[in-house]
Design brief:
Length: about 150
């Protein structure tokens, strides 16, 4: 959105710290999830760290299982890969990016014009739910949980 302010350069920040999972590049998040330039970088980093922590905690047992099988990091998980990145590495990143964007949606609304904000608010809750569902589907895939569930009444 053009607002007369200079467009900030892409972030060079890298989030690392969980040895099994790949580093997360803020610039890649900005590009992949079309994060508005007006969203402060610190807020983006906080959302990414929050999302990565929550998802890493959910996947701790699966990571321990893979490590017991001799798999040292996500890029070594057997299966599809592209450019030396495994499906597991890409699924983790996609899950984190979707969840982080869901966390930032309130920030997007605070940037919007007042007339646009009312419409944006109703769309934001639907979008937030869709992003969280997307994130959850990737986490479930990493856990080996099928997308189909049956409940007996």
């Amino acid at each position: 959105m053009f607002n007369g302010n200079p467009v900030p350069e892409a972030s060079s920040a890298v989030i690392s710290g969980v040895l099994f999972w790949p580093d997360l590049y803020v610039a890649e998040f900005q590009r992949a999830r079309a994060v508005p330039a007006d969203v402060h970088e610190d807020n983006q980093i906080a959302a990414l760290m929050n999302a990565a922590t929550a998802i890493s905690e959910r996947l701790e047992q699966q990571v321990a299982k893979w490590q017991a099988e001799g798999i040292a990091n996500a890029n070594e998980v057997p299966g599809f890969n592209v450019h030396e990145r495994s499906w597991a590495s890409m699924a983790f990143q996609t899950a984190v990016f979707a969840r982080a964007k869901a966390l930032l949606l309130a920030e997007f609304g605070s940037i919007a014009q007042r007339s646009e904000a009312n419409n944006a608010h109703s769309l934001a809750s639907e979008t937030r739910e869709a992003l969280m569902a997307e994130s959850e589907s990737y986490v479930n895939r990493l856990l080996g949980i099928s997308g189909v569930r049956v409940t007996f009444l």
